[in-house]
Specification:
The protein has helices spanning about 50-55, 80-85, 105-115, 125-135, 155-165, 185-200, 210-215, 235-240, 245-250, 260-265, 295-300; strands at about 5-20, 20-35, 40-45, 65-70, 75, 90-95, 170-175, 205-210, 220-225, 230-235, 305-310, 310-315. By secondary structure, it is an alpha/beta fold. It has one domain (about 5-90, about 170-319): P-loop containing nucleotide triphosphate hydrolases (Rossmann fold, 3-Layer(aba) Sandwich). The two termini are about 25 Å apart.
Length: about 325
C-alpha cells in the first residue's frame, strides 16, 4: 500500500480494562489501515468493542498496547501539546445527540468552544464561522443563540457534526451517529455526512449496527466480534461473498425487499448468547456459536490473513 494514500494505520491495537481481579479485553490485537477520503465501516453486535476502538484511536482512551499512526506520526507516543494539535485533525461525532451536547450552553457556544480552545477565531469572525458551520449542516444560522432542547434529535446530531467540523478535521470517527435517531431522519444525516465528505475531503470511520446503512456509506467494512476483527473487505465483496461464519450470519439477518428471495433464502441463526468479554472462549472467540466449528477452533487462535486480494479474515476455514 502506498503510504501517501494512507491516513491512519492501526497496528495490534489493544485496550484492556481492569475490573476487580478480571481483565476486560475490549479491543484485542486489531490491525487495519484507512486511506485518505475513504469511509471504513465497522460493524458488530453491542459490546464487541467498536466504540472503544474508535475512542482509543483518538486517544480519548489510552491504548493498552499497539500503535496508532496518523499521517506518519505515532499518536500513542505524543505528549499533551502534540496531542492538542492533533485533535484538530481528528474529531468524533457521538452516538447520542441528547447526551453529547451541554444543555446549559447555547448552540453557538457549543460549536464555538473548539474555536476558542484552538484559538481559531474570536469576536465577529467567531460569530461568522459559527453561522457558516450551521449553514453547512443545513441549520438556520440565526438559531445560534438557542439551546439544545429547542432542537429535534436530527437537528441536534447536525449540531454535533458542526461542532466536529469547526476545527477543519481530516478524520472523523462517527460513533453510531444515527442509532438514536428516527429512521426517517437517519438517511438525511447519512446523506449530509456523504456531502460533507465530498466537499471537504474527509475520511470517516463509521461505526454502526445497521448493516444495510453501513453498506450504503462505506467503501470498506470491518466486522468485529468480542474485541477482535474477524473480517475486513471492500463493501461489495463483503456483502456478496462473506468469508467468516459470523459475517455470514450477520448478513443473513438483513431483510431483503423481494418476498420471493426472502422466502427461499436461508437464515443462519446463531446458537446461544455472546460470551462475556471478561471470559472469552479459548482459541477462536466465535467457536461456541459457530455452525462450522472444528476441533482446532477450540485450541488455536485463527490467524488474521489476506484470503483474497484486499479481503482479510481470521478463520481456520482458510488456514
Amino acid at each position: 500500500m502506498d503510504h501517501k494514500d494512507t491516513l491512519l494505520e492501526v497496528r495490534n491495537l489493544k485496550k484492556f480494562f481492569n475490573i476487580g481481579d478480571n481483565t476486560l479485553k475490549a479491543v484485542n490485537d486489531v490491525s487495519f489501515d484507512i486511506k485518505r477520503g475513504e469511509t471504513l465501516g465497522i460493524v458488530g453486535e453491542s459490546g464487541c468493542g467498536k466504540s472503544t476502538m474508535g475512542r482509543t484511536i483518538l486517544r480519548l482512551y489510552e491504548p493498552t498496547g499497539g500503535d496508532v499512526v496518523f499521517e506518519g506520526k505515532t499518536v500513542n507516543k505524543m505528549n499533551n501539546q502534540e496531542l492538542k494539535a492533533l485533535r484538530r485533525s481528528m474529531q468524533m461525532i457521538f452516538q447520542d445527540p441528547y447526551a453529547s451536547l451541554n444543555p446549559r450552553m447555547t448552540v453557538g457556544d457549543i460549536i464555538g468552544e473548539a474555536l476558542d480552545i484552538h484559538g481559531l477565531a474570536s469576536g465577529e469572525k467567531r460569530k461568522e464561522r459559527i453561522q457558516e458551520l450551521l449553514s453547512l449542516v443545513s441549520l438556520n444560522p440565526e438559531h445560534m443563540n438557542r439551546f439544545p432542547h429547542e432542537f429535534s434529535g436530527g437537528q441536534r446530531q447536525r449540531i454535533g457534526i458542526a461542532r466536529a467540523l469547526a476545527v477543519e478535521p481530516k478524520f472523523i470517527v462517527c460513533d453510531e451517529p444515527i442509532s438514536a435517531l428516527d429512521v426517517s431522519v437517519q438517511a438525511q444525516v447519512v446523506n449530509l455526512l456523504e456531502q460533507l465528505q465530498e466537499k471537504m475531503g474527509l475520511t470517516y470511520m463509521f461505526i454502526a449496527h445497521d448493516l444495510s446503512m453501513v453498506k450504503y456509506i462505506s467503501d470498506r467494512v470491518g466486522v468485529m466480534y468480542l474485541g477482535k476483527m474477524v473480517e475486513l473487505a471492500g463493501s461489495d465483496a463483503l456483502y456478496e461473498k462473506p468469508l467468516h461464519p459470523y459475517t455470514q450470519a450477520l448478513l443473513s439477518a438483513i431483510p431483503i425487499p423481494d418476498p420471493e428471495i426472502e422466502r427461499n433464502r436461508e437464515r443462519i441463526v446463531l446458537e446461544g448468547d455472546v460470551p462475556s468479554p471478561m471470559n472469552p472462549p479459548s482459541g477462536c472467540h466465535f467457536r461456541t456459536r459457530c455452525p462450522k466449528a472444528m476441533p482446532e477452533c477450540a485450541t488455536m487462535e485463527p490467524v488474521w490473513k489476506e484470503v483474497e486480494p484486499g479481503h482479510f479474515a481470521a478463520c481456520h476455514l482458510y488456514n
